[in-house]
Every structure is written in structure tokens, then in C-alpha cells.
Amino acid sequence: MTDWFAQVGGVSSALAGTDMAMPGDGDIPLLGLAYWAYDLSTSVLNGTVPLERLNDMVTRIVATWYQLGQDQNYPPPNFSANTAAATGLCYPGALFSPTCETNEYVDVQADHATVARETAREGITLLKNVNHTLPLSTSASLKILGSDAQNNPDGINACTDRSCNRGVLGMGWGSGELQRSEILLTILIYLRNGKLSLSGCTHRRH
Q: Structure pTM?
């Protein structure tokens, strides 16, 4: 399966092993153009893409459907990647679409925060502790420089798909992003726990 709009050829991508193109449009979305669609049928009919390869593509896609149990009361999507509103267009890419519930705002965090902190803690490796720099003294001067010195001043969810470099990057850009409830910077954790005071640190963003 391709990344969003990552398909760059029709016959070539089919022969190279691509089974599914996402979202299915060509270079320009919503114009009804695609590298496959009718052209894939034509390619099979004229022999440039073997029928066996088409059958292989379909088999892989359908097998995954059954492997994940999507034929047995599989829950429908409860959120939309197109809008954060509770209701909106059911099919935003269509010329005409009814309105339906688009987001149920299901809380799926569970104990993810605890797991994330444990993972981060276990991944920290101290290579050298020259002159016993650590642990830091609560009276020491601490300078935090760079984009990670603060959260996005416009809000941690200010940019569409978080596609900006203002403040700390919680994760990469793109449609796989999420609505964050909080971002805890290391400096803020120290301040909250009383390990540092504002008088003892300089907070600067470049």
C-alpha cells in the first residue's frame, strides 16, 4: 500500500508489487484522475499487467480484510481525519454527501502515559558524567535553547496535522498525528517537581 499520494506510476507500480494506492487519486485529488481505476483495467486487457498480478493484488487485500475479522461485526470508524467537529459530511471527497456523526471523541488513552514515560526512562543512556555534572544542582544556572525550549506559543494543537516547527515536536507531521491533551517538557517537569526555580534558569527560544 502506498503512502498518501505517493504513487507515481500505473503499470510500473503494479508490477513492482503495489497492491493498493492511497487515497486512490492521481497527483491532484478530487478530479477523478488516477494512475489505476479505468487505466488498470485497460492495462490488464492489453496485457501490460498480467491478470495473475491483478488477482494477487485482490487476494492480498481481501485476505487482510478477513485476517482482521472485518467481516464479523468489526466496529466502524468513530473519528474523522477531515474534521474535528461532531457532525459533518459523511463522504467529504464526494460531490454530494449526507451529513452524519463524524467524531465520537472516544478516550483511548488508558495507561499510555505511564507506558510512554517508562519507555522514555528506560531509553535514557548516560554516556559520560564528566566532573560529576549530574545530578544537576537546584542552584545551578540552566539554559534551554532551541525549538524544544517551549511548546508552540499558539497552542500544542495549533497547526493542521501539527505541520509546523513552532515549539517542541511531539511527533512527525502528517495525517497520523493526533489531538494532544498535553505536552510535558523536561524543563516543566523539573519546575513542577520543585527541582528547579525560575530564578535559576533561562528559558529562551531561537
A: 0.58
